[in-house]
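To assess whether ligand presence alters the predicted conformation, the chain was also submitted together with 2-acetamido-2-deoxy-beta-D-glucopyranose. Input:
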Amino acid sequence: MQPILLMILILGSTLFHISTARKNVLFILADDMRPEIAALRDNDSPSQMHDKMYTPHLDAFTEHSAVFRRAYVQQAICGPSRASFMTGRRPDTTRVYNLQDYFRRVGGNFSTIPQYFKERGYRTLGMGKIFHSGQSAGGNNDAPSWSSDETFFHSPSRRGYWNPIKKEHSWYSINTTLEREHPIGDQEVTDHAISVLQRLAPKAISGEENFFMAVGFYLPHLPFIFPERFLQYYPISDIKQPSNPYAPLNMPDYAWHSNGELLNGYGDIKSLNISGAPNTTWPSQLVLDLRRAYYASISYVDSLFGQIMTELDNLGLRNDTIVMFGSDHGWQLYEHTAWCKHTNFELATRTPLMFRAPGLTDQGIMSDHLVEYVDIYSTLVELADLPAAPLCPENPAAIQECTEGTSLVPIMKNSSLPGKPRVFMQYPRYRQFGRVMGYSMRTDKYRYTEWVRFNETGFGPDWTAQEAVELYDHTNDQEENVNRANDAEYASIVEQLKGHLHEGWRPVAN
Ligand SMILES: *[C@@H]1O[C@H](CO)[C@@H](O)[C@H](O)[C@H]1NC(C)=O
Ligand SMILES: *[C@@H]1O[C@H](CO)[C@@H](O)[C@H](O)[C@H]1NC(C)=O
Ligand SMILES: *[C@@H]1O[C@H](CO)[C@@H](O)[C@H](O)[C@H]1NC(C)=O
Ligand SMILES: *[C@@H]1O[C@H](CO)[C@@H](O)[C@H](O)[C@H]1NC(C)=O
Ligand SMILES: *[C@@H]1O[C@H](CO)[C@@H](O)[C@H](O)[C@H]1NC(C)=O
Ligand SMILES: *[C@@H]1O[C@H](CO)[C@@H](O)[C@H](O)[C@H]1NC(C)=O
Ligand SMILES: *[C@@H]1O[C@H](CO)[C@@H](O)[C@H](O)[C@H]1NC(C)=O
């Protein structure tokens, strides 16, 4: 900064008590977390949400945050979703559709959210699960995102837990003895976050250096391993079977995935030799146990989130720090007889998203606007008063700084603004003849999906080669149990939605 400008700023702030301090950013992600937060329940919540969640810290956080109850990711699997929202670009631009590809290699050398802050003077650092790890993050946790004198932190127990338990158990509640001998990875990430906040606080408070700190929990990803004290909030008698343990009527085969992550990953499930086909009946007690363990894992994440929030308060950083909480996608808990993510259904694509921005969201804002994870990039940039990144043009592979999302700050400031009329997500399936992509769109009332051949040259849909279509009417079928795409009475709706899907996101990016 120019000395003269600095002087004017200092003078301005002392004379007129204007706070010129830049805000820090604390960017917190859970993994595989659908919006199972007690304070998020309302009439429009997916009906399958548990009605007795124990999430006191996230509940308290919502009271001073902008909460987006209808937030959707762009692809319901970890690596592609994270590559998309971290770069503010959609999967057909990052070209990351799987867990191996690295956006800088297959899409372009795009700036990420932390990188954008780093290049504007922030100290940026990360810990836990932020990008999908390994080669899909360049083998170095995407080094350009982080300040070069910071080391990316992974918990010593790495993904979740101690191997002998993690490999054999899809879920496990551990006692305090075991927890002491083998700490849970997310607690290690939390302890690290707290010590780093203590280190960064003095310079952040004096205004010498702001931080962008990314904290990624591994839970409630499988295996559901949590301290057993969290089971007390979930007596087994409170746990229900899903209301729709069957695949949708007229569901095309493309919409289905085979539950492989759960079926093949853990000894206790493997030994049961359960089929991955739709409408497979799972042992009833196992369904209840897994649902309960998922909820308990969320309560555990809630408690760790609370530890970090408490430290932020204790260090006096709260008023100077923007806090975001989100996840990479939702999860299916045997609804439709599906588990995990890997689909375009509501439960897989919808996930929590909230921002606590001091001075803007202090009174709490509950928004039912349709929003997308690709919007996070420009939202954080605007909340921090950094210069906005422009909207990407067509074919933005060579442009380092641009975004395919829209800042949510205007709808935080004025909830009467309409926001986007529709949001977009996609999921690929592989067949012998090649790749088929399910392009899906959520409007206020409908979910509409076309499964089409993928144009491997243009990295986009070939709308002329349609394989299957789905339409779910959320007015009378919130659970997406009946595919109406071929119902005569929906023909004109299908026509209209088809037009909007084929136009894509660009006409509604305001
Ligand atoms: C990608 O961008 C980073 C940050 O701007 C730069 O340091 C690096 O050299 C670029 N890599 C390539 C291959 O262009
Ligand atoms: C704690 O759990 C371990 C592993 O399940 C078990 O071997 C041990 O007996 C338990 N200890 C107590 C005090 O319950
Ligand atoms: C699954 O069961 C539902 C409800 O009985 C039925 O409507 C649907 O056609 C079945 N789907 C498949 C793929 O078997
Ligand atoms: C697993 O189930 C399939 C049928 O679903 C059966 O063919 C196979 O023999 C079973 N394998 C074992 C090890 O039980
Ligand atoms: C933080 O901001 C709130 C609301 O503006 C104010 O009441 C509180 O005193 C501030 N706390 C500190 C530590 O500055
Ligand atoms: C909020 O948005 C509505 C709808 O566009 C508009 O009519 C109204 O004037 C806006 N309010 C403010 C305070 O800008
Ligand atoms: C596939 O993409 C290429 C390159 O963008 C384009 O020239 C071609 O027209 C596309 N084909 C179809 C069927 O959309």
